[in-house]
Each structure stands twice: as structure tokens, then as C-alpha cells.
């Protein structure tokens, strides 16, 4: 379903970094170099049944010979992590997309503050590789239950030295976003992890007056919004003048496909950014967690976002 190019890569290493997290290394069976990627990027991993899951690249972006992912086993999840833990062992072939980045490093920043909760540290680990190689000023906060449960801890210690700050709740130590203080020019803050952590960072920084352009958050999970009741609406296709009706129980993405539009997609839960399209003349109800605020006036994610009454799509 995705328009992204998918490669057949070989698992060359699988190492447990915590009791629940496996670090997988992939290489191309023939080519010495994989497509270039930027820190913060993720790939789609295609499961046997055609479904895809998104995982952040967590290795050194300068190392084109391999892709490294760290995947947490989620027993209560949607099944993707269990499949990868059980099937992606050394020698296995995996279908991996070209990388895509929704969580880039602000190259203009003079200092970077990275905050990772649990497995959310993965894109920040790639940023740490990049920032350390460039001699940038950065600090990385790693929040976990304990050292034993902290993903990538040993390699982050080796890479970051005293720029790594660990917060282990079992030892009574918790990261407090209030400590980030008042806004500072040139300082950019990046957070990824459980929603309670990313919400706390966002709310605290917003309250302290940090400009949204200096705060970067990546979410792994769809928007938690149990009380939302979808309503039907109409979408006018700008290029043809056709109007398509979107029933309350069908996504805009599905309706567009039924009308012959080859819409790319991947996660279909509003977290990856693959299905982004343009719109105008309508009130869109944004229900994704990936589109930056600055783009919401004229871009939307039709896999989850909808409109009030009607909208014109730039298709
Ligand atoms: S398919 Fe991932 S955001 Fe729409």
C-alpha cells in the first residue's frame, strides 16, 4: 500500500539490549551501501501479512553499510513487535522501506537537549551519533525503569560520556521538564517516548513560553481520543470538481482509494506522515500526531483526519 521503495534486507545481528528490547542490524545482501538517511528517520518494516510497522533508525547515520533498529516486545500491542522478535533472527530476510524523516535535527541550533523515555530513545540515539560526530553541544536524558530496562544504555554511555543523564524510576530518580527552565535562543529540545512524558515536556515548555519551533516531539502511538465521534462529510476534488462522500465509519483515505486515487500510506493511524495531502476551504479535524502545527492550515493526514461538513482537497 505504501509508495515507498521497499528493500529485501538480511538480518545480520540480533542482540538483546534489555530483557524486552532486541537490537536488529540489517544489511543488503549484495550492495555495500544502503540509502542515506538523516537522524530522527524511521523505516517501515513489512510483516508477513502485508501490514507495516514503523521503527526509528538508531545507529550511526554516517554508516551506510547497515540499518539498526531497536524493537521492544509489546505483549499487549498490535502484534508487530512479537512477530519481529520471533522471526527476525540472523539470516532472516526482512522487507524494509527507504527511510523517511518527520523528526529532524534543527541544524541551526547552538545546543540540543534530547529527552528519551524507554524505547523512545531510539531516534535520539541516531541524533546523538550525528551530533557527537559534528562536535555539537548536546545532552541526552534517558528515562527508564532501571538500568537493566534502559534500551541502548551501553552504547549511549560509550558514545555520549557525561553528556548522557540517566533517570531510573526504580532508584527514585525522575526527569522533571521544569528543569529545562525559561526559553533560550538557539536551544532546541527533542522528546520521544510514552505520551505522559511527551505531554509533560510539551505542556511544561509551552507554559514556560518556549516557541513551538524549538520543541520537537515524536509520537509512537495514535492520538488517545476515546470520546471523538466521527461525522460524515463531503470532499471536493480540486482538480476534477468531483465530490466524494465520506461516511462516518470510513476514513477519507479509504474513500479516496475507492474513487481511484492511488494514495500512499503506511501506518494508517496518523503517526508516520506517509499519506499527507493538501486541502483548502474547509475546517479540518486533525487527528494525527505527526503533522507540525505550522502545516495544519493547508495539509492533512487523510488516514485519520476528517472535516466538518466539507473540504476541498488539492488532488
Ligand atoms: S498512513 Fe501514516 S499518517 Fe497516514
Distance between the termini: 18 Å
Helix and strand sequence: EEEEEHEEHEHEEHEEEHEEEEE
User: Which class do the helix and strand fractions yield?
Assistant: alpha/beta
Number of structural domains = 3
Report the β-strand fraction as a percent range. 25-35%
The low-confidence runs, each spanning 5 or more residues with pLDDT under 50, are none
Ions, cofactors and other bound molecules: FE2/S2 (inorganic) cluster
Task: Offer a quick outline of the entry.
With 315 residues, this protein is an alpha/beta fold. 16% of the residues lie in helices and 30% in strands. The chain has helices at residues 80-87, 122-133, 153-160, 195-208, 252-258, and strands at residues 6-16, 21-27, 42-46, 52-56, 67-72, 93-97, 111-117, 138-144, 164-168, 187-192, 215-218, 233-237, 243-246, 277-280, 283-285, 299-300, 306-308, 310-313.
Describe the structure.
Residues 233-315 form the 2Fe-2S ferredoxin-type domain. GO terms for molecular function: 2 iron, 2 sulfur cluster binding; metal ion binding; methyltransferase activity; oxidoreductase activity. The mean pLDDT is 93. Helices cover 16% and strands 30% of the residues. The protein has a 6-stranded antiparallel sheet with strand order 4-3-6-1-2-5, covered by helices on one side. It has a 5-stranded parallel sheet with strand order 9-8-7-10-11, sandwiched between helices. Strand 1 and strand 2 form a beta hairpin. By secondary structure, it is of the alpha/beta class. It folds into 3 domains: 6-97, Beta Barrel (Elongation Factor Tu (Ef-tu), domain 3), CATH 2.40.30.10; 111-218, Rossmann fold; 233-313, Ubiquitin-like (UB roll) (Roll). It has helices at 80-87, 122-133, 153-160, 195-208, 252-258, and strands at residues 6-16, 21-27, 42-46, 52-56, 67-72, 93-97, 111-117, 138-144, 164-168, 187-192, 215-218, 233-237, 243-246, 277-280, 283-285, 299-300, 306-308, 310-313. The structure holds FE2/S2 (inorganic) cluster (FES). FE2/S2 (inorganic) cluster is lined by residues 265-268, 270-275, 288, 290, 301, 303.
Amino acid at each position: 500500500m505504501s509508495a515507498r521503495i521497499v528493500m529485501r534486507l538480511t538480518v545480520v545481528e540480533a542482540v538483546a539490549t534489555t530483557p524486552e528490547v532486541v537490537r536488529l542490524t540489517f544489511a543488503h545482501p549484495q550492495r555495500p551501501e544502503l540509502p542515506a538517511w538523516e537522524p530522527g528517520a524511521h523505516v517501515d518494516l513489512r510483516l508477513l501479512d502485508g501490514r507495516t510497522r514503523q521503527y526509528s533508525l538508531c545507529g550511526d547515520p554516517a554508516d551506510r553499510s547497515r540499518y539498526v533498529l531497536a524493537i521492544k516486545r509489546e505483549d499487549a500491542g498490535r502484534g508487530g513487535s512479537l512477530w519481529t522478535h520471533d522471526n527476525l533472527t540472523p539470516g532472516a530476510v526482512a522487507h524494509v522501506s527507504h527511510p523517511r524523516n518527520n523528526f529532524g535535527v534543527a541544524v541551526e541550533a547552538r545546543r540540543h537537549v534530547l529527552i528519551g523515555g524507554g524505547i523512545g530513545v531510539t531516534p535520539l540515539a541516531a541524533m546523538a551519533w550525528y551530533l557527537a560526530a559534528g562536535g555539537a553541544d548536546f545532552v541526552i536524558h534517558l528515562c527508564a525503569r532501571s538500568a537493566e530496562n534502559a534500551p541502548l544504555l551501553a552504547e549511549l554511555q560509550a558514545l555520549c560520556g557525561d553528556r548522557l543523564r540517566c533517570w531510573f524510576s526504580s532508584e527514585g530518580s525522575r526527569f522533571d521538564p521544569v528543569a529545562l527552565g525559561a526559553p533560550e535562543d538557539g536551544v532546541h529540545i527533542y522528546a520521544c517516548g510514552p505520551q505522559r512524558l511527551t505531554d509533560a515536556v510539551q505542556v511544561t515548555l509551552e507554559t514556560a513560553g518556549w516557541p513551538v519551533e524549538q520543541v520537537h516531539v515524536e509520537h509512537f502511538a495514535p492520538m488517545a481520543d476515546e470520546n471523538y465521534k466521527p461525522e460524515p462529510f463531503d470532499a471536493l476534488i480540486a482538480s476534477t470538481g468531483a465530490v466524494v462522500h465520506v461516511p462516518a465509519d470510513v476514513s477519507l483515505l479509504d474513500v479516496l482509494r475507492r474513487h481511484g486515487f492511488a494514495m500512499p500510506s503506511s501506518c494508517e493511524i496518523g503517526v508516520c506522515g506517509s499519506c499527507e495531502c493538501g486541502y483548502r476551504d474547509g475546517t479540518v479535524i486533525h487527528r494525527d500526531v505527526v503533522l507540525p502545527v505550522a502545516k495544519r492550515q493547508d495539509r492533512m493526514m487523510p488516514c485519520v483526519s476528517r472535516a466538518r461538513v466539507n473540504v476541498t482537497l488539492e488532488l
